[in-house]
Design goal:
The chain is of the alpha+beta class and about 170 residues long. Helix content is about 55%, strand content about 15%. A 4-stranded mixed β-sheet has the order 2-1-3-4. α1 (about 20-40) links the parallel β1 and β2. α2 packs antiparallel against α3. The relative contact order is 0.20.
Amino acid sequence: MTDSTAPSSPVVLEAWFDLQCPDCFQALDDVHALREKYGDRLDVRLRHFPLAKNKHAYAAAQAAEEAFEQEAGWPYAEALLARTADLADRGEPVLQEVAAGLGLDAEEFDTALIDGRHLLAVDADQAEGQALKVTGTPTYVIGGERLDGGKSQEGLRARIEEIADRLLVG
């Protein structure tokens, strides 16, 4: 069933995450629910906002970018978020373990972390996040509206749904 009033392109939800942030792991419940509800009408895009307090978040963001290059970005980000405490304790070896667990090209993955090929993408996300006044994670941007989940995620999914529904109707 197609709705002729629905826009031809999906609504974009930018999810500004720090991949070492336990709150971002909790936010995955909302991401999953939103994907379930909207399917391909909602394009959830991971945007990187590594927080200075999380020592391995910057490397984790680069690792996720390499995982996207290998067509496993969201599965990688979700698997890594499930291991935030492990990442905090053990650092970068966890990045490689998650990649191996997903069957990513380990050599290419290691090379990407060493040669810094994804530094610019992560830096660009962080700069854009700062320009949008992202201060904590998770933070969402949908329809030009910034929704800050850094202090509380209470009611965020309902607000995202309200905006998405409005944008999808046009």
